[in-house]
Amino acid sequence: MSAGRTRGFTLIELVITLAIIGLLASAAMPLAQIVAQREKEADLRAALREIRGALDAYRVAAQTGHIKMELGDSGFPPDLKSLYEGVEDVASEKKVNLYFLRRIPRDPFFADPDASAEESWGLRSYASPPDAPEPGGDVFDVYSLAPGKGLNGVAYRDW
């Protein structure tokens, strides 16, 4: 060992190390984006399942005589607020309210963070066709207003 040589890294070794770290980081970035998208899609799936379950429970309550229905009503709620604000149970002697959700979940892909959770969903009425959903006098189904497709290739609107 020569007396003039000191221990440490050379400039070439540092540059090669930084290049390898940069390469690994650039390879990991798309993977992180896919993981984030997958988490949002799982949240969307769960929110749709929760709202649709509440819509179905409302209809069952209407068909079994717990919610007042007029002739020609579909049995679905007039709006999403009815699911968490509650409706009077007409079959109850104590006139209690029926609640179907604690709150409306938000569409995780909705762009405007200042909009309410109800505004983040597209509404489909019972009289609306499935290929061209339109709001109406009741809420039969909800769908995402987000553009684009999921990792499965299906548009978010069609989930």
Q: How would you describe this protein?
A:
The protein starts with 10 loop residues before the first helix and ends in a 15-residue tail after the last strand. The protein is elongated and about 95 Å long. 36% of the residues lie in helices and 8% in strands. It is mostly helical and 159 residues long. The chain has helices spanning 11-63, 81-85, and strands at residues 87-88, 97-98, 121-124, 141-144. The model has no long low-confidence stretch (mean pLDDT 91). It has a two-stranded antiparallel sheet with strand order 1-2. A two-stranded antiparallel ribbon has the order 3-4. The chain is built from two helices and four strands; from the N terminus they run H-H-E-E-E-E. The chain has one domain.
Q: What is the fold's blueprint, element by element?
A:
Blueprint: H1 11-63, H2 81-85, E1 87-88, E2 97-98, E3 121-124, E4 141-144
Antiparallel strand pairs: 1-2, 3-4
Which key features would you list for this structure?
159 residues, mainly alpha, two-stranded antiparallel ribbon, 2 helices, 8% strand, elongated
The count of DSSP E runs of length 2 or more, i.e. the number of strands, is: 4
Strand arrangement, major sheet: 1-2
Q: Strand share of the residues?
A: 5-15%
What distance separates the N and C termini? Answer: 70 Å
What's the number of structural domains? 1
The number of helical elements comes to 2
Uncertain parts: none
Question: How is the quaternary structure best described?
Answer: single chain
Helical percentage: 25-40%
- Strand-pairing-aware structural class: mainly alpha
Q: Kindly state the mean pLDDT as a whole number?
A: 91
> Helix and strand string, N-terminal first?
HHEEEE
How does the overall form come out from the CA principal axes? Answer: elongated
